[in-house]
Write a structure and sequence with these properties.
Layout (H helix, E strand, L loop, with lengths): L11 E6 L2 E5 L10 E6 L2 E5 L5 H14 L8 E3 L18 E5 H9 L2 H9 L5 H12 L14 E3 L2 E6 L2 E7 L9 E5 L4 E3 L17 H13 L4 E3 L8 H23 L4 H11 L9 H13 L8 H13 L9
Parallel strand pairs: 4-5, 5-6, 6-7, 11-12
Antiparallel strand pairs: 1-2, 2-3, 3-4, 8-9, 9-10, 10-11
Helix pairs in contact: 3-4, 4-9, 5-6, 6-7, 6-8, 7-8, 8-9
C-alpha cells in the first residue's frame, strides 16, 4: 500500500494502491462525504455517491480518467441511506446497487424530495430550517435528483467478487443510521467505513444504540487492516478508529452521568460541548448525539422531532460563528 504520509486530505481521487481509491471532499463537514473505488481487471465497484449530481459527475469523471475500467461501473454499494452517500445514484448507469435491507427501507421512508423541500423553503421552517440551509442548503445543488434505490439487498453479511478480489459487506447497524455497511477488502487490508468512522469531526448519531457503534469500531480494530477510508475526513488507519471509539465511549459516559442527576438533554449537551473534543469540527452535532443517548437511557421519554433538535442546535450555532442566512 501507499505509505500513510503520502495521503493528503485534498479534494479528489486518492490512490491507495492495489486497485483501491478514495475520493475525498474536504473539510469533511456536513454533506462533504467521501466515496471509494475498487477495481480488478475490467471489474469495478463504487462505494457511495455524493450529495448532488454535479459533485457526483465530477467524481465519476475523475475516476474514469484515472481508471479505464471505471468507464462502466459494475456495482455500487450504498453504505447507508443519507443523501450525501446516495443522492448521486442515478448517474451510475447500469450498475447493480447493493445495500442493507435497512438502508433500502430508510431510503424509501425518507426520499430526497422531503429534504429538498425543506432546503428550498427554509424560511417556512423557522430556525431549524435556517440552520439546515446554513449547513447544507447553500453549499450544494439539489436540482434534478431522483430517488434511485438499491436493486439488491442483504440482511447482515454479503460477499461479492470484483474480478478476483473478494469484498465483504457487513451491516453493523443500527448505529449512525438504521443500516450501516462496512466494505472490507481483506486482500488489500483496506476498509471503506461509510459514516461509522468520521475523522477530525463530530459524528452524528441519527439512530443508535451507541454500543452497536462501539462494537462496529471493535470489529474494524480486530481486522488486519492498514487503510481506513472514513465516510468523512482524511484517510486514516486504526488510530482513527480508536479515536472514534474513544469519542463514543466518552460521550456515552458523560451523557449518562448527567442523565442520572436529572439534567435535561439540552443542558447536558451544552456542558459536554464546552468540555470535550472541542478541536473537532461540527461541534453542534453533540446536541443530536446527546438527545439520542437520552432516548436510549429512557425509552419512555418524550422524543423531540429532528426539526426540534435542529432548532435547539440553531441557537448554539448562531452564538458560535455561524451566520444566519437571513442576515
Amino acid at each position: 500500500m501507499i505509505p500513510m504520509e503520502k495521503w493528503r486530505f485534498t479534494k479528489g481521487l486518492c490512490d491507495l494502491g492495489r486497485g483501491c481509491w478514495a475520493y475525498l471532499q474536504p473539510d469533511g463537514g456536513w454533506g462533504w462525504s467521501n466515496a471509494g473505488l475498487i477495481a480488478d481487471g475490467d471489474a469495478t465497484l463504487l462505494v457511495d455517491t455524493l450529495f448532488d449530481l454535479p459533485l457526483t459527475d465530477e467524481m465519476l469523471t475523475a475516476m474514469r480518467d484515472a481508471v479505464p475500467a471505471a468507464k462502466s461501473i459494475d456495482t455500487l454499494i450504498n453504505t447507508h441511506a443519507n443523501g450525501d452517500h446516495t443522492y448521486g445514484n442515478q448517474l451510475v448507469k447500469g450498475a447493480q446497487i447493493v445495500a442493507s435491507q435497512a438502508c433500502l427501507k430508510e431510503m424509501e421512508r425518507q426520499p430526497p424530495d422531503a429534504f429538498i423541500k425543506r432546503v428550498e423553503n427554509w424560511r417556512d421552517y423557522g430556525e431549524s430550517g435556517a440552520l439546515i440551509y446554513d449547513l447544507m442548503g447553500r453549499k450544494f445543488d439539489f436540482g434534478g435528483i431522483v430517488n434511485t434505490l438499491p436493486t439488491r439487498t442483504f440482511d447482515r453479511e454479503l460477499a461479492l467478487m470484483v474480478g478476483d478480489k473478494r469484498i465483504e459487506l457487513i451491516n453493523v447497524g443500527p448505529a449512525h443510521t438504521c443500516g450501516d455497511v462496512l466494505v472490507h477488502v481483506p486482500a488489500d487490508k483496506t476498509v471503506f467505513t461509510g459514516d461509522i468512522i468520521f475523522v477530525g469531526g463530530h459524528p452524528v448519531m441519527w439512530a443508535g444504540p451507541v454500543d452497536n457503534w462501539i462494537t462496529a469500531c471493535d470489529r474494524i480494530l480486530g481486522w488486519d487492516v492498514e487503510t481506513v477510508v472514513p465516510g468523512h475526513g482524511a484517510v486514516t488507519d486504526k488510530r482513527g478508529v480508536r479515536e472514534m471509539r474513544d469519542y463514543l465511549s466518552i460521550l456515552r459516559d458523560e451523557a449518562r452521568a448527567r442523565f442520572d442527576t436529572g439534567l435535561s438533554w439540552v443542558d447536558a449537551a451544552e456542558e459536554i460541548i464546552a468540555d470535550h473534543f472541542t478541536h473537532w469540527i461540527d461541534r453542534e452535532r453533540i446536541f443530536v448525539n446527546v438527545n439520542s443517548l437520552y432516548r436510549e437511557f429512557d425509552e419512555q421519554a418524550d422524543v423531540p422531532s429532528v426539526m426540534q433538535v435542529y432548532e435547539v442546535m440553531a441557537g448554539w450555532c448562531w452564538d458560535h460563528g455561524h451566520t444566519h442566512p437571513a442576515n
